Amino acid sequence: MTIQLTEKERMFLEDAKINEEVCIQKYQNYSNQVKDPKLQQILSKLAGEEQEHYDTLDTLLKGEDPKINVPKPQKPNQNKQVTIENNIQGVMSNKKDEVICNDLLSTEKYVAGTYGDDVFESFNPIVREAMQHIQKDEQKHGEEIFNYMYSKNMCNVK
Ligand SMILES: [Fe+2]
After folding, report:
1. How far is the CA of 88 from the centre of ligand 1 (A)?
2. What would the pLDDT profile of 49-92 be if each residue is shown by its tens digit?
3. d(CA 20, ligand 1 centre) in Å
């Protein structure tokens, strides 16, 4: 089935694609910079999920149904290499990981907000459902980063 996009939908989908590209880059680069291997694993996984968002947006822009409710086969993780540089950085303080987490949390908050707008500006139900789905994913990413930070005493919740 071909989806006929409105001009507005095309515009916000193009914008969202740019944001997803930024997210992919951030998660990939940061996963190679953080000290804690556990955090590296989380960021690497989230990079893959952002790539899925990018693919969903791309499919919609081609006028095709991304079929977001059909589970996709797991992609191999291409971001697992640990370089010598990482190990050198390992002796640095946790503060750097905290700054990275805060940046990612802000990014997710911003991006989730833009998807909230897109939900209201969607005309096609398939587009709306995809925006809701991706927004929820971004909220889950935020939750995952927050939970990590909380477990490491990196945030003040009082
Ligand atoms: Fe995303």
Report:
1. 30
2. 999 999 999 999 999 999 987 776 666 655 545 444 444 444 44
3. 5
